[in-house]
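Could you help me review a protein record that somebody else here produced? What it holds is a sequence and that sequence's fold in token form. I need someone to confirm that the token line plausibly describes how this chain folds. Take the sequence as given and treat only the tokens as open to question. This is what I was given:
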Amino acid sequence: MKPRTPWAWIPTLYFAEGLPYVAVMSISVIMYKKLDVSNADIALYTSWLYLPWVIKPFWSPFVDLMKTRRWWIYSTQLLIGAGMAGIAFTIPAQFFWQASLAFFWLVSFSSATHDIAADGFYMLGLPVKEQAFFIGIRTTFYRIAMVTGQGLLVMLAGFLETGFGQASYSWSIVFLVLAGIFTAAFAWHRFILPLPEEDRQRSGVTPRTIMLDFGRAFADFFRKKGIAPALLFMLTFRLGESQLLKLVSPFLLDAREKGGLALSTAEVGLAYGTVGVLSLVLGGILGGIVISRAGGLKRWLWPMTLSLFVPNLVYLYMAYALPENLFLINACVGIEQFGYGFGFTAYTMYLMLFSDGAYKTSHYAICTGFMALGMMLPGMVSGTIQEIIGYRSFFIWVILSGIPVFFVIPFLRIKEKHI
């Protein structure tokens, strides 16, 4: 292996892993809202972009079979950069809606593949002792990517809108910046990534043997004890949150006569992309601490699920009060995101515990596929529901959507000995 310090590539690798996901799932929603796309269309078509993460487990074995993980990393970064450039050049066009969505699909599939390769390379490129140390570093830079995307780049778009007077040109520049970032990431990782001995194209392995092995892992997953309540939990835990996430930015941006708060693009970048993300991170950190040091998941599952559920009331309050005070709005967004981060820790821990066994890696990948499916399907209809019933009734619906998971929790099997 070439002598490469992990500090030279782990921060940039996980920054590059987080940024396209944020662009696809969050920046796209704000951009399309500013380009006058309806809430129903935004929610439906941007939710479809979850699909690559839903089906990621089915093609992850082939990333192992074809080429090296190092090759997949910098190749997908180049494709992501090309997709970002394609979005930038199609935004000012009359057919921007269809064309930009096509390029978002390219970014989505490339990003999901990059996730597979990067996470696999992390385990091959580091000694076991260093893997534990750098897991916090990689998470930190993934979160920095979220702040950069949802916060700084959205704020940049807002400032450019003020200067240009046209949303399309400002968002074109933002996506050109993203294209430049990923072109640089491709060049940097092509040069700096180490060459682990274990990261080589496997010989003597065929697509047939890969599929047989995956088939065994898949069948074993559905033979697990308690599989039915486990799947219901994976699909319902974020039932309310999956719909809320698609409509938060439109609610913050929409005019007051439409029931929104009429914030500027830059103000949304500050509230949701900066204050919100930092609160999310703090909630996640606290969630990890209390599970590991204060009784385990079984003790904290109910309180953490409530912490995901109850803070959604702040949006119901804002829909009725329509506050104009930016400090109050930021505080409300921060409260909801802190609760989301704190509660989501329990969800992640449950997936890890449920995946334990002979096929742990494959089973966790399948769990994350169901997690993405639980985000995609409700998100697809959330915009249509909001347009029919309005923001106030929609936030009541979001709160009611959080109730079903509480009927599932009593039937879950939680193996405390693994915590």
Observations:
- The chain has a mean pLDDT of 89.
- Residues 360-401 form the longest helix (42 residues).
